[in-house]
Amino acid sequence: MNTDAMNLFELICHTKSLPNDKHHRVGILALREERLTRRIRNIIHLPSGITLPDQLTKKMISPIFMKYCTTGIWDTTLHGDKVVRIRHGILRPSTYTEE
Fold first, then answer.
1. Strand 2-3 relative to strand 85-88: parallel, antiparallel, unpaired?
2. pTM
3. pLDDT digits over 55-72, tens only?
4. Which of 99, 95, 98, 92 shows the shortest CA–CA distance to 38?
5. What angle do CA 46, 11, 16 make, to 5 degrees?
6. Phi, psi dihedrals of residue 7, rounded to the nearest 5°
7. Whose CA is closest to 19, among 6, 28, 10?
8. What pLDDT shows up at residue 29?
9. Mean pLDDT score of the chain, rounded to an integer?
10. CA distances from 5 to 37, 72, 84, 91 (A)
11. Is residue 12's pLDDT more than 80?
12. Per-residue CA distances from 82 to 37, 73, 79 (Å)
């Protein structure tokens, strides 16, 4: 799973508490459970400058998206102080509780 939303990345990786909205809380807890049971193995935070769907959701012309559409190559070159954050899947416990 990859995202450019740092808040979502932190919520799933347990570095932030749960959101106040109960609808969002259910979604975050579901994603945390998917990570715990290793149905989601890696969570990747990409800077918004190198994500492919930006052109589909914003009014812009993205050279990265255009290169991907014409050549099939996804250019993930980072510029400046931007970094990619990856949280690898946790080891699957033999048992786990709903707590």
1. unpaired
2. 0.64
3. 788 888 888 888 888 999
4. 92
5. 120
6. -60, -45
7. 28
8. 87
9. 79
10. 23, 25, 12, 25
11. yes
12. 30, 20, 6
